[in-house]
Structure formats: structure tokens, C-alpha cells
Amino acid sequence: METHPDIIDIRQRHEAAERAATTPRAQAIEMLALLTGLYLAASPWIVGFNGGGFTRLAVTNLITGIGYALLMSGGFGRAYDRMHSMAWAACVLGAWTIVAPWVVAGDVDTTRTVVNNIITGALALLLALAASAGAAKRSAKGGRGGFGGAER
Question: How many CA atoms lie within 13 A of 45 on its CB side?
């Protein structure tokens, strides 16, 4: 059973995923993405737009930030074979963060809500694109490499 081709393939994929997860670039992207998601979730209270007419935007940022942090921080385990699609979903969340003040709050008359969401959304989008590029490199190499190009 130990020499079955499927078991050998699964073991090799797992080892490659572990190597990809331990590259400095992958760890930096993962940590920055986690911090970005946590900041986005807490930003209404940090920046101070959790009251008034911005309650819906505060809730949107909270939910989007938690979702982004879970998608990008490895919250679903070391599934680097699926990281490419998870990173693209995180790209959508980053883009949503940028436009959310206008879509959710409507007439945005405070600069801090717009600036906060544009900067945080752009950072989230760039980190997700970097993760997607790393996952795409890994997929193109046949399951090897990953975020930093760690070879077997």
C-alpha cells in the first residue's frame, strides 16, 4: 500500500505544499494579509466611522475583513492546490473594499471612510494578487514551487 502511486503522489504534494508554506515570501504575504484583514475588520472602530450613517459600512468592513483574513491566512489549512482560486476570491474582496463606501453608504461625505477603504482595499488586492501569482507559479510547475519558487 505504501508504494501505491496515489499515496506517493499525495505525499509528494503535501511535502511540496509544506515547502511552499515555509518560504519567506509566502510567510510575509500570509502575515501581511492576516494583518490587513484584521485591520479592515476593526477599522470602523479604529478610524471612527462605526456610528451615525456608517453602521452598514462598519458591518460590511467587519464581515469583509474577517473573510479576507480567513481566505488569505491559511485559515483553510495548507491547501495550496486551491490557493489560486482562494486568492482570486480575496482579490474580489479587496476590490469590494475599495468601492464599498459608495455602494453601501451612498453619499460618502467623510474623507476618512473613503481613504481608509481605498488604502486598505488596494493593499488587500495587491497581497491577493501576489498570493495568486505564487499559487499560479506552483501550479505551472506541476505542484512544485509555490510562493517563493521552492523547488523539490
Answer: 7
